[in-house]
Amino acid sequence: MGNEEVRLLTGADVKRWLPSRPENGHKGTFGHLLSVCGCYGMAGAAGFAAEAAYRCGTGLVTAAMPQSVYPLVTAAVPEAVCLPLAQDENGGISAEAWNAVAPRLSGVSAVLIGCGLGKGEGADVVLTNVLKTAACPVLVDADGLNLLSAHTDRVETGAPLCLTPHPAEAARLLHTTTAAVEADRVGAARALSVQYGAVAVLKGHETLIAAAGMPILQNRTGNDTLAKGGSGDLLAGMIAGFAAQGLPLYEAAACGVYLHALAGERAGARLSRRGALARDVLAELAHLLSEFE
Fold first, then answer.
1. What is the pLDDT of residue 154?
2. For the chain, what percentages of helix, strand and coil (3-state, to nearest 5) are there?
């Protein structure tokens, strides 16, 4: 760990940082998230991310996805405003999708991009342009991270940025190996935050959160209940949702990481760590949040 300052993330931190809920608030009070996620075969990622943001209190979520998965996402999350996008022959978004995404950026308070997005040319075009254009916080996850790692020399963004890699994605972003990341998780988290000028959330056992000028936060809630598909989409939606409500990305990441992992613990205790699914973690989150309000 060298001279890095590492501090344990606590429930008291979360209670202190969670965004307030004024009684006279309306959906505009609680932020607007644009979620650019999903492709053919990965509609669930888009749905989980959007619903997780809503569960964390976001006032409005616009879910942008390829036309082919629109019916699935709107059925799964009827609260979402859906923005069907032009798609390529493989069911991913096409480069033309940027024409629909671009005008939405000025009206939102945060952007999430990457969950189940695919790695086609269109996804790359939209990600690159979102990073160049957005003025609000941007969270990049999953396929978005893999696209980013392919051209780290031309990452351009003036917006606050959050990256949420698991160890293999972190290794690609840092041009190293997964084993090297796992051997020095603290160093890897700090390197990600420095190289990309971002809040870095290095997922895994005892997830780490790193940001310039701040202590690295280490989370000790959670267990293997979360070792299932969909869990990462929930976390991305939660962090982005808190950012949409106005939390700085460091605090948004901390609240998302802690609550996501604790909801996983609760779901595992209720249903078994083997049997609980991402949807059960999402349901547990709604009850858990009442303890922090």
1. 60
2. 50, 15, 35
